[in-house]
Amino acid sequence: MVVHALDVESIGVPADATPAVLGFTMSGHILGRAVLTATAETPA
Question: What does the domain layout of the chain look like in residue ranges?
Answer without folding.
Answer: 2-35
